Amino acid sequence: MSLLVQKFGGTSVGSAERIQHVAKRIKQELQRGNQLVVVVSAMGKSTDQLIGLAKELNAAPEPREMDMLLATGEQVTISLLSMALHALGIKATSMTGWQAGIQTEAVHAKARIKAIDTKAMLEKLEDGQVVIVAGFQGASEDGQITTLGRGGSDTTAVALAAALKAERCDIFTDVTGVYTADPRVVPLARQLTQISYDEMLELAHLGAGVLHPRAVECAKNNNVCLSVRSSFEDVEGTIVKEEPAMEDGLVVHGVAHDKQVTKVTVRGMKKRIGALSGLFSLLAKAHINVDIIINQSMYDLDYTNISFSIHQDELRNTLTVLENNKENLVYKDIIYEEDLCKVSIVGAGMISNPGVAAEMFDCLSTENIEIKMVSTSEIKVSCVIPQVDMLRAVQALHTTFGLDKAKAKAYQE
Amino acid sequence: MSLLVQKFGGTSVGSAERIQHVAKRIKQELQRGNQLVVVVSAMGKSTDQLIGLAKELNAAPEPREMDMLLATGEQVTISLLSMALHALGIKATSMTGWQAGIQTEAVHAKARIKAIDTKAMLEKLEDGQVVIVAGFQGASEDGQITTLGRGGSDTTAVALAAALKAERCDIFTDVTGVYTADPRVVPLARQLTQISYDEMLELAHLGAGVLHPRAVECAKNNNVCLSVRSSFEDVEGTIVKEEPAMEDGLVVHGVAHDKQVTKVTVRGMKKRIGALSGLFSLLAKAHINVDIIINQSMYDLDYTNISFSIHQDELRNTLTVLENNKENLVYKDIIYEEDLCKVSIVGAGMISNPGVAAEMFDCLSTENIEIKMVSTSEIKVSCVIPQVDMLRAVQALHTTFGLDKAKAKAYQE
């Protein structure tokens, strides 16, 4: 008997009918003799509807109240899924985040999970019940309802799998697995059978929407075996675990894109020890995720320009933080560039192939695309480019690095 | 500075626009220098929508899961109302039932409030905040989400007013106050300016939907001054408190009706000590509210027939309980009569006017209406009659006891 954690996203539980379908899949899994903890998201577009209602009443609602509001979405799903299971004669108990013992930081809208008290869940599992947990939410130590931010249900599932030492964590979603690129953008994209945590982490961070990056991080840190698969089609998904089989010998495994990027430059910042840490500590305290950072010293010995990229939604908040701290930070002015995007190539094979970055720049320059920022890691290269060029860039890179499905077919013919 | 508790029902918070309207009323109240705790229901028909979803998945959902589901309705409203207040520059904090310290019995769907820990609310009030509490819900000692049953938001408001020693509890609703009869049934019904707890209690128990009977009971027990008023029109409502001004000298103050009544008769029950208490303890344990009880011994010395009335929704449950305990209870069979209703007259003046019941029976017999059961208290007389005769009965009684508005007008002419 294995304990599995299975997570069903918003589309998978988008209607009464789909919830019934999920209940049937759970029943099948139980018949295989497994114990189950199921994590669910809010139904379909219900979160967006709640956000719409909130915006009618307040253009900038307080995060605490947004969490109070949005946490109801998953609470609806857990109770409905329990009822659907009961109708099939299956014992099940729903639990909100706080009831399942998910304790988070005292931060709203994007809290991180601090600890999970598995006592209540284990009691129900021992009683032969399916435990249905509301994803995306928890409670701070002082009893405030918190949420983990969009996509946080993945993180809930992986964190529960880690805390419960589950055999595997299945992420059921509306795609069949992880692809070499977004199939909506690159029709020739192929599905991967297996991928490493680091590659998945880079892909997730780079905007491949299949898995929340924190979920992958959490899976890597706790060595949780992840399986990404479709809740609609009964086909094999993509397994995410350490040391995947090198199926293809390809240097690059995937091309990712993230279309909502803004570049911010703090100009004329006085050079001094602690200047950089001061700047980025302030942004971190305001919970602004900074992605690429470039420190351009230029010719001046006393002043420096610092550029960084953020999600475009964070621009207002970022500017406020910077302006409120102008005296401490000591800089001349701030400029920013909107309507940018980021394209990235990811692959564990890069470590032993130093020419990959150059090949990427070459591909983009052949397409006459301007590169605004560059960032590299051992297994990925990212370029910030204009948003209008994104589609062309992703498709050209997918072809350049030999990922197109058509080519594979061509070989077979 | 007075502390008031104000409750806004589902219709009053049925849309973003109406929530804004409620926020403005709260602002006015604050400008009068009062402290406020506001209790809200779920938005408009949202509870019914949730119930509809549940029924799609399970014909008889477990009460625990229904509570989990329905409690989201009020949680949505508290967060939205807080956001609307923030938009007006008013400090406010939303609290779910459990966050507000409302502890209930460990019973689902119709839990009673056991205790209220006011600490969290008082902290926010001292900080100059409006506290917005989710009505209708609480939590049991072991952290299960419970609900108080339909109309329970009134009870929440009164219980909070009692626990916080509030000056007054305002119940804002979609009617302007308490009437001598349901104005939709009796067009000539008049609004009362004041009424006693006992009269209100009888009216509430008898199905006059303005206030939940438990709310009135709780107000009476704790001597909470209630005010029932419209959230749409800015007019005086009806005050409910002890010893109302005898404005009219009328014997009867109101005619109430309750249209969903079923009469159940347990026939051939063996006479023995404890037989009756055994029967009704079983029903009470199953949380079935029994209204009128009639013990008809007839001619037989050894066996008795016991009739009682229940809400028609309880019939299935009642029959199950009786059948499962046939051996212990020792009876011949059960018969029941559906499609009945109850009409009642209520008035403190009855105590000194013993002929009132006779006058009621006379009125109904003149209308050729069959009386199936009778129940009397010091300040009310109720008759169970066929549902088809309800409208005629209520109107005839309203006229007979001099409550018609037209008459009052006629005197003025």
From TrEMBL, chains A, B:
Protein name, entry field: Aspartokinase
Function: Catalyzes the phosphorylation of the beta-carboxyl group of aspartic acid with ATP to yield 4-phospho-L-aspartate, which is involved in the branched biosynthetic pathway leading to the biosynthesis of amino acids threonine, isoleucine and methionine.
Keywords attached to this entry: Amino-acid biosynthesis, ATP-binding, Diaminopimelate biosynthesis, Kinase, Lysine biosynthesis, Nucleotide-binding, Transferase
Pathway(s) it belongs to: Amino-acid biosynthesis; L-lysine biosynthesis via DAP pathway; (S)-tetrahydrodipicolinate from L-aspartate: step 1/4; Amino-acid biosynthesis; L-threonine biosynthesis; L-threonine from L-aspartate: step 1/5; Amino-acid biosynthesis; L-methionine biosynthesis via de novo pathway; L-homoserine from L-aspartate: step 1/3
Recorded coiled-coil stretches: none
EC number: 2.7.2.4
Superkingdom field: Bacteria
Keyword Amino-acid biosynthesis (UniProt): yes
Domain ACT: 345-413
Family the UniProt entry places it in: Belongs to the aspartokinase family.
Lineage of source species: Bacteria, Bacillati, Bacillota, Bacilli, Bacillales
